[in-house]
Each structure stands twice: as structure tokens, then as C-alpha cells.
Amino acid sequence: MDTITLDRIKLAHPKVRESLLQEYQEINNKLPANVRLRFAYVFRTPEEQHKLFIQRPKVTKADQWQSIHNYGLAFDIVLLYDKDNNGTFELASWEQNKYWMQVVAYFKSKGWEWGGDWKSFKDAPHFQKTFGLKWQQMKMKLDNQEFKIENGIKYINL
């Protein structure tokens, strides 16, 4: 497994953390030996989100607290390829090939919303679970002190 991704999963919202780890391991076992899934992001701080928001060319429409990443309920993917089959995964790719779509189908089957299905501003690497809440409602939970702190992160009550 990819230790970078395993560390990032530890920062996911406690409500999804255990199942996300299990799902991550399961889909990696379904991919060929020379392909690995990495989560490029899981939790993202509001400061990190704002930097992405002001970046050009535009990579997101979500400013700080508008991204589901800020609540630990989203992840972005990238595929890693071992070109020489020597166990060194060197090549990162966001190409939506058959392996990418295999990952997409898998996570959608587990109830994750895929950003590639969005009508405007498609976000093919992005997956999220909102539990029926919009980002404004999530932010309101923070403002109303409806959260618990773990790993130094405020996780909203779900």
C-alpha cells in the first residue's frame, strides 16, 4: 500500500475513516500489480484551500470552508504506475483510462459522489460524502461549536 495515502486517510473525518481505509485497500487489490492508487488530498486546511482557490489557471471554485476537503469528507485521486515492474511507482497520471474508471466505478458503488459527474466545473479526481449537507451547513456546524477535535482538526458532528 501507499504509505502517503495511509497517512492521509488518518486525517479523514472519523465517520468515514475506517471504511475509507478498507475501501482503499480493496480497490488497490483489484488493480494490476504495476498500478497503485494514491490519494493526492484528503483533509485540506482552509489556508491550503484558499491558496488553491486563488491559483491560476483555476483549479477549484471552492474557497476556504467551501470545500468538502476542509471537513475531511473528500479525497482526490491520482494513479501511480511502476514502469519497470520493479516495485517503484514513479509515474503519476490523471489520465481517465480504464484503471481510472475502475477506481471511479468502485468508489461510486460505495456511495461516494464523483466530481466527474458534476454538470459544471467537472473535477475528475474528486470524491466526497456530504451526508446530505451542503458546505454552508457544515460551516454553520463549526460556527455553532458542533464539532469534536481530533488530530488537531475540528471534525463536525454528523
Give an overview of the whole structure.
- Helices cover about 35% and strands about 20% of the residues.
- The chain has about 160 residues and is α+β, with helices and mostly antiparallel strands.
- It has a single domain, classed as Muramoyl-pentapeptide Carboxypeptidase, domain 2 (2-Layer Sandwich).
- Strands 1, 2, 3, 4 and 5 form a five-stranded antiparallel sheet that branches. Strands 6-7 form a two-stranded antiparallel sheet.
- The longest helix has 17 residues.
From the N-terminal CA to the C-terminal CA, the straight-line distance is 29 Å
Work out the radius of gyration: 16 Å
Number of helices: 5
Class inferred from helices and paired strands: alpha+beta
Percentage of residues in strands: 15-25%
CATH top level is Alpha Beta
Counted beta strands: 7
Overall number of structural domains? 1
Name given to the CATH architecture: 2-Layer Sandwich
Q: Note poorly predicted spans.
A: none
Topology:
Elements: H1 3-9, H2 14-30, E1 35-41, H3 46-54, E2 74-81, E3 91-93, H4 98-109, E4 113-114, E5 126-128, H5 135-143, E6 147-150, E7 153-156
What would the keywords be for this entry?
5 helices, 158 residues, five-stranded antiparallel β-sheet, alpha+beta, single chain, Muramoyl-pentapeptide Carboxypeptidase, domain 2, two-stranded antiparallel ribbon, 7 strands
